[in-house]
Amino acid sequence: MKLNLLIAPDFAPERFAGWHMLNTLLQKRADLHIHLETPASAQEQSEQIANKNIEIIYANPFDAATMIREQGYRAVARPKGKADEMVIATKAEGQYKNLEDVKSGAKVAMADNRDVKLIGLRLLEAVDLTESDLSWHTTETYQAAAREVIKGDADVGFFLSEVYHSLSRLTLSQLHVLIESDLSDITHVVLVKEDFAESQKFVDALLALTDSNDGKEVLQELGITDGFEAMSEEDGEFMIDLMDTLLD
Q1: pLDDT band (50, 70, 90) for residue 184
Q2: Mean pLDDT to the nearest integer, 78-82
């Protein structure tokens, strides 16, 4: 039986090969036939989940909360010590030097990543800005958002921290960080369909990656050097509560 593993489209481009390496290793370790799905956008992710039987998803926390509540998934694992942080950045030679310089009417460029937007809005509460105070432009990728900021087509960009710090040296030299979050308890999550009968074989293989050299090599490629840890149903509920707090 062929299974589908879908990876949320917000990883840094240089991690692409690492996900394929992970898929190959998990197939061998769990003795499962797993097909890797790597949608290019949030829209494509939604379409694939709607049109295919996706048994396993590596989801961002906002999407994971919805998938657990409404789509029959449960959380089984998360990366150790790898929180989802975000960066608000502007043009290096632009008018904004500090977060306080961002005013109502500013244009924000960002990829379609709702948890990054929620965290960013929480950070902007410190300068009395809300979602309706800002103009929003959704780009295909974070790299495209960076280009808009550098060209002056957007005042600031919202970025997943890992992706921001993976941008080219030239790109980073043209950007200036206004603030970076430090929440530490919001992470991507590995979800499995409730009716996925062989889920424990998959989870066991995933959690054991740190026990072998080839597993450690794959984790290094993914930037998840400490591996994955198991999640309980209570952990999943706690994560949902955190996302609800960000939404309130």
Answers
A1: confident
A2: 91
